[in-house]
Write a structure and sequence with these properties.
The structure is a single chain. A hairpin with a 5-residue loop joins strand 8 and strand 9. Among the domains are: 52 residues, no CATH class; 86 residues, PH-domain like. Helix content is 24%, strand content 40%. The strands form five sheets. A four-stranded antiparallel β-sheet has the order 1-2-3-4, with helices on both faces. It has a four-stranded antiparallel β-sheet with strand order 10-11-12-13. Strands 14, 15, 16 and 17 form a four-stranded antiparallel β-sheet that branches. It is of the alpha+beta class.
Length: 213
């Protein structure tokens, strides 16, 4: 592996290794450690450290069509704390072709959300605003960039709905219990990093606001 050039990379390498995979592009090798991932991109580009504690993971449904059938492909994007990104497509629907990568990526998303959960819940409880891409929330409201803001007391429901082939977060907003369609706030899930963590925090904030009424 290329020389260790960053402290956080060294910390990952010191943790327990749990597997490695040579990726489809040949020269890249993905290493999984107890506290995160390390992408070995070769001697020229060097390693990319992706510790779970500050990793942002995006998952975009990107179907392709071949001979009359849909091939389920997800584009996984991993973003480090310094803004470096790495995107890799993963096919999940081909029969007879098994790969450990789809499950490993899902586990990485789960580990990332789990490692960041405690600090996020604490900050939310202290009144801080938490940003997940275009979505920002605190104890009193949720905001979707370019779409609007709604206080939790007016949010009727949080859901995920299909919009074509793009799963979308829908914040159903009402007034005095009556549904107002124009106030729906929507954003594609692919734009939201660490979506499971956002989903949990949004429900916590919503439940707290409803209980306080």
């Amino acid at each position: 592996m290329a020389a260790v050039v960053r402290d956080e990379l060294g910390a990952l390498l010191d943790s327990w290794p749990t597997g490695k995979w040579r990726l489809a592009r040949g020269k890249e090798i993905l290493h999984r450690f107890e506290h995160g991932l390390v992408l070995d991109r070769g001697a020229k580009r060097g390693p990319l450290a992706l510790p779970y504690r500050d990793l942002r993971i995006y998952r975009e449904f990107n179907p392709t069509f071949s001979r009359g059938r849909t091939i389920v492909v997800f584009d996984w994007t991993f973003e480090s704390s310094d803004g470096q990104t790495w995107t890799t497509p993963v096919e999940e629907s081909r029969k007879g072709k098994r790969s450990a990568l789809p499950q490993m990526y899902k586990e990485a998303l789960g580990q990332t959300c789990a490692r960041q959960r405690e600090a996020a819940v604490q900050r939310l409880g202290e009144g801080a605003a938490l940003a997940f891409g275009p979505v920002e929330l605190d104890r009193s409201q949720i905001s979707v960039g370019g779409r609007g803001t709604a206080p939790w007391t007016r949010v009727i429901e949080l859901s995920v709905k299909p919009r074509g082939h793009r799963p979308t977060l829908v914040v159903k907003v009402g007034h005095d219990g009556r549904f107002v369609k124009e106030r729906n706030l929507e954003v594609h899930m692919a734009k939201i990093p660490n979506f499971p963590l956002l989903w949990e925090l949004a429900h916590l904030a919503h439940a707290h606001a409803q209980a306080a009424q």
